[in-house]
Amino acid sequence: MSASQVPPVTAIGTPRITAGFDEYGRLDLIAHQEVHGGFAALSSGELIGLADRIELRGRGGAGFPFARKVRAVLDSCRRQELPPVIVVNATEGEPPSWKDKAVLTRGPHLILDGAALAAAALDAEEIVIGIADDGIGQSSITAALAERRMPCPTRIVTVPHRFISGEGGALVRGINGEAHIPPGRKVRSSDNGVMGLPTLLSNAETYSQLAIAARLGPWEYNAVGIPEEPGTVMLTVGGSATNPAVVEAPTGTPLMDVLNMCGADIGPGLLVGGYHGKWITAEAAQTVTISRKGFAAVGGTLGAGMLIPIGSKTCPLGEVSQVVQYLAGESAGQCGPCRLGLPDLARAVTLVSLGGNAVENVRQAAGVVKGRGACSHPDGTARFALSALEVFAKDVEAHTNGEGCGKSVRGILPLPYTAEQGARRLAVDWSRCDGHGLCSAVAPEIIRLDANGFPAFPQTPLPPWLENGARKAVNVCPALALRLTEAATK
């Protein structure tokens, strides 16, 4: 992977974080200073006051108030008499998301400015920048660090490019040399983070917004956007959009302005907030303004700023099934709701997509995992699946009735599987298949029979937990028609 894979970056209104991108492509230190100018150091009290006055919240998905994070770290430092560590989460392991990588590759000094502000204000021991091992942005941030002096030692740590590796606890564990998975219990990084020190952890866009606010001051920063959520947000628009892009937009911007700019065919639904987000209907999308409050009004979530229209040319349930299978495979495997519950949920969703009457099974499986995991992964996956049943109710009915939607799965929802990773998929030699049906009896969670008695299954790479079942189905095929093949790189 390379920086060339990052989608185009554009802005609605006057750009802030993305200022200079059109002119310079990537801003080195000289270009960065020319575009953004300098800024003054802040005390811890001034840092908290600024974050409070601009209502700065984390842009990684949870939306936690940044000022509260800083207070918690300061309280922990005083209580334990320890210095803090500043962590920048630029891992962005969720397949549809590109906004942080866009800033990492093209405006790295803005991220470093925000981290430096926090480190100087808190008298930090160290700054750690977490990035994914896919290589995107690594050369950019490395070059940026070589061009400047930071207020304390600063290092880059790479983590596996996986969905759960970017979870806060997983990132801290990875930095500490442990497994890159969330801890098995709730741990506050503000109390016990990197090297056991109080740790201020937020994502790359959050630190960039902080750097912008330090230059502009709260009054000018708040002049853009809506009063309760001022400023701009970075959005990734993908899915069926003919012009996918990373878009910087003021809060309060109509959602349709962003989607129309990117040539998005919404189709029956739009995924907002990413794979831990929610689906909303095309009708609801017409009324939304870009903000946490705006999305909440239609039952959605801003999350990490992902907007994924499904379009009208793919099978929505097949797309959803693929993603739930992927999310089940991304489980850390250290608590029952993830290790056992998510595969059950994925099987139920897959059965619905293949025409089985398993809607209640989906609801039951989602109910089992909700609120019971050691991290947010089970809850987010359940939210994604349940909202899909609501938004795609007509497709659910058509599949359950045996008619189907008549559409193939086009891969509108991106997945990270590649042949190099060893992912495999089922395939059929139709010149051999006689429709014996034994494969569906052995692996009903993967294979069902169509109206003519021939095997039907999602055209998606198999997650690890389904491979054994698929192998058994291959072994019992009397005509040797079913086989496992290497999945094609997407």
From TrEMBL:
Name the record gives this protein: NADH:ubiquinone oxidoreductase subunit F (NADH-binding)
Cofactor(s) listed: [4Fe-4S] cluster; FMN
Gene Ontology molecular functions: 4 iron, 4 sulfur cluster binding; metal ion binding; NADH dehydrogenase activity
InterPro entries found in the cross-reference section: 4Fe4S_Fe-S-bd (IPR017896), ComplexI_51kDa_subunit (IPR050837), Nuo51_FMN-bd (IPR011538), Nuo51_FMN-bd_sf (IPR037225), Nuop51_4Fe4S-bd (IPR019575), Nuop51_4Fe4S-bd_sf (IPR037207)
Domain 4Fe-4S ferredoxin-type: 424-452
GO terms under biological process: cellular respiration
Family from the record: Belongs to the complex I 51 kDa subunit family.
